[in-house]
Structure formats: C-alpha cells, structure tokens
C-alpha cells in the first residue's frame, strides 16, 4: 500500500497577525515560514526580498485594522443582494451610505498604495 496523505491543518488569524507573519516571512512562502518557525525555531529563517516589499508597516497595519473594524464586506453583500432582487430603493440614506463606502474604499486603497510603495497606472 502507498503512503497515506495527511490532511492539511488550517489556522485562522486576525488581519494584524497575518500581516505580522507576512512581514516576518519577508517574501518566503507563508506556509514554509510558519513551518520553519514551529518545527525548527532555533534556525534563522532565510530572508528573501518579496516582490512588493512593504514601505510603511504602520500604514499597512492601519489599513488592516480599518478593514477588520469595518462592516464593508457585509454591507456591500447586502447591497448586492438587494440590487439583485430589485428591492433597493435609492433613497437619500442609501445614496449617502454608498458615497460613504466609496470614500472608505478610496482611503484604504490610498493607504495600501502608500504602504506597499507601488505606482498606480493612470
């Protein structure tokens, strides 16, 4: 008989925890980095430069915290469901909520661009 494969192990992390691990991994595959830290913590992990090194970790943490605290995904999902069923009346409140969501997304995008130090094509 062949070798049995062991099912993968899942681990839930907060946005902040994952951002810290990705920063510490410095471009290494996240799974490989976590495995090396857990199974061989005495060995210094190899440091690789990522494709998009983070320029500003504080801005990135601010963005991740903003995403974690927002109900943006849930709200957009509810709006999409209402639009698909035809039950989305465009009231001044709905319009205000959409404008607010767009503003929040624009701020998060700007913070992410600054934190990752990437140039955006016009």
From TrEMBL:
Q: Which residues form the Bacterial mobilisation domain?
A: 70-99
A family per Pfam:
MobC
Q: Which InterPro entries does the entry link to? A: MobC
Spell out the protein name for this chain.
Answer: Bacterial mobilisation domain-containing protein
């Amino acid at each position: 008989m062949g070798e049995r494969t062991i099912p993968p192990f899942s681990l839930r992390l907060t946005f902040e925890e994952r951002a810290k691990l990705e920063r510490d991994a410095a471009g290494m595959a996240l799974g490989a980095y976590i495995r090396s830290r857990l199974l061989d913590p005495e060995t210094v992990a190899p440091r690789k430069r990522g494709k998009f090194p983070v320029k500003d970790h504080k801005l990135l943490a601010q963005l991740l915290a903003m995403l974690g605290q927002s109900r943006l995904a849930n709200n957009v999902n509810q709006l999409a469901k209402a639009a698909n069923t035809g039950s989305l009346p465009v009231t001044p409140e709905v319009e205000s909520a959409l404008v607010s969501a767009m503003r929040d997304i624009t701020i998060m995008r700007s913070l992410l661009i600054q934190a990752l130090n990437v140039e955006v094509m016009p």
